[in-house]
Design brief:
- The protein is α+β, with helices and mostly antiparallel strands.
- It is 23% helix and 43% strand.
- It has a seven-stranded antiparallel β-sheet with strand order 1-7-6-5-4-3-2.
Length: 155
Amino acid sequence: MPRYLGIISTPRPREEAFDYLADFASVAEWDPSVVEAHALDSGPPRVGSRLKVVVRTAGRETPFTYEIEELERPARVVLRAETAAVVSLDTITFAANAAGTDVTYDADLRLKGPLRLLELPMRVAFKRLAENAKAGLERELGMAEAQPEAIPAAS
């Protein structure tokens, strides 16, 4: 399965970083592969809140409906989307540090059915997309200092 684990440090306080990312519609501001993102439910983010996110890859636009599965302010948010071809599970955790907050983003993409045969080539493409998203997130959160390069998670 394609998976990406990235860690950034931001000078923003933990609650502020959490609020920015728990409102997952912000993904359109920092992930260059996202062409559209908006909440499908009114009110603040909560467990069960849904968001529409449209991703462009290889010239195709694919809509995802994400749902917040876990929300523990200001420590953790877990979002899940499922289509006929893929399951995406994004876990974002927040830890205070002396200069602000460490944000850990764990993106796990599981291909379904015959598409599982494409997992190996998808890992390379997914890593590139995730690195671009990480750079955008660092920019948006005003990164304090770079952590070691993103760690490709074991499959």
